[in-house]
Design goal:
Length: 359
């Protein structure tokens, strides 16, 4: 009976994977072969009942990239933190003969983190110099995302007309004034139909040297972790029906498999894409701080009005808007944080991790 149940899980898993790739290929003209799903996360049932399910062994050497920050001066001014100019869209690999990577400037990073504040009043008379905002966005693009899917876009709003439209979608007088006063606001949009990105992501992985054992199962893994069944955003009724039944099958299959082995979580597509969009948004704010800019992250807005103002497609949701510019007032003291023992635990939930400094 246990063997039979495990086989049912395998069949359900592979059906979901085939459904993912088939629909994606139909909707987006992808050349991905449905046979890529043949090696799913539960690809074989062992005769040995003590080890029913075997995961595929993926021998994927981590890719090391260069990230070599330099310092313009020895001043304590955090605006002097600069990075080596980027001359290519593809990062250059580190020396393959090096055993370790030299530690970067931890003190400089500490100053950047401590200098970041939620700006209250932007200087509406001061614009951002050319190249500064572009650099912040370029660094944000280096933020990590699950399976390197990068399920987000960022819309830079800098025209007076669009800032006025954007302000009408904001909630609260404070948010409205920040949008109007800041020279730029960046709207981070999460892609809830990220499976359409798979052909490009798989190709990039291959170019980066990822083995076939990884790229062949990447579509299935992304579908499982992201809940990525929204392949037909232009046909919402069909998409909703497919998503409904696909999620039921996946939840049942994973619930059964979870009795025997660890299985991935089953988030909604929006939950997964929002999580991955917060990474580049955070890097963007830290990069802006390092370059002397002030930022304010906001989530108080009316999504339908925001979509109409910026023409955001229905398969995108909006986790956060970050206004960026220069502060009118001198830096204020940072707000308080909860005690470290309430935030950081060791080995077991509720056991405080000792020795965390308070900044």
């Amino acid at each position: 009976n246990i063997i039979f149940i495990a086989k049912v899980v395998i069949v359900c898993d592979n059906l979901i994977g085939i459904m993912n790739i088939s629909i994606m290929s139909f909707a987006h003209g992808s050349r991905l072969d449905v046979r890529q799903c043949e090696r799913g996360p539960w690809n074989s049932v062992r005769k040995n009942r003590t080890k029913l399910i075997q995961y595929p062994v993926i021998k994927h050497s981590p890719i090391k990239w260069s990230a070599v920050p330099t310092r313009a001066s020895t001043s304590d001014d955090h605006t002097n933190i600069v990075t080596t100019p980027v001359t290519s869209s593809k990062p250059q690999p580190l020396d393959s003969t090096a055993k370790t990577v030299e530690p970067l400037d931890g003190e400089a990073f500490t100053r950047v983190v401590l200098a970041r504040r939620t700006e209250r009043v932007f200087d509406s008379t001061r614009s951002i110099p050319n190249g500064v905002l572009e650099k912040c966005l370029g660094l944000a693009a280096r933020a990590p995302t699950s399976f390197n899917m990068q399920p987000y876009v960022a819309i830079v709003v800098d025209s007076a007309e669009k800032k006025l439209e954007l302000s009408k979608a904001m909630l609260g007088e404070g948010n409205i004034q920040q949008i109007l006063a800041a020279p730029v606001s960046v709207v981070f949009c999460a892609n809830n139909s990220c499976m359409s990105l798979l052909p490009k992501v798989v190709q990039m992985a291959k170019e980066d040297g990822a083995p076939e054992a990884f790229t062949s199962v990447l579509p299935l893994y992304v579908g499982l972790f992201s809940g990525g069944f929204n392949f037909l955003p232009k046909i919402p009724i069909i998409n909703s029906i497919i998503s409904f039944f696909a999620r039921i099958i996946r939840k049942v299959a994973l619930a059964i498999a979870g009795i025997f082995v660890p299985v991935p979580p089953t988030p909604a597509p929006e939950t997964w894409s929002h999580k991955n969009t917060t990474f580049p948004a955070t890097v963007f704010m830290l990069a802006a701080t390092a370059l002397g800019l002030a930022t304010r992250a906001m989530e108080g807005f009316h999504p339908p009005r925001l979509r109409r103002a910026l023409g955001i497609p229905s398969n995108y949701s909006i986790p956060v808007i970050v206004s960026v510019g220069y502060s009118v007032d001198p830096p204020a003291a940072g707000s308080q944080r909860l005690p470290p023992e309430e935030l950081f635990y060791t080995n077991h939930f509720g056991t405080p991790f000792q020795g965390v400094p308070v900044y």
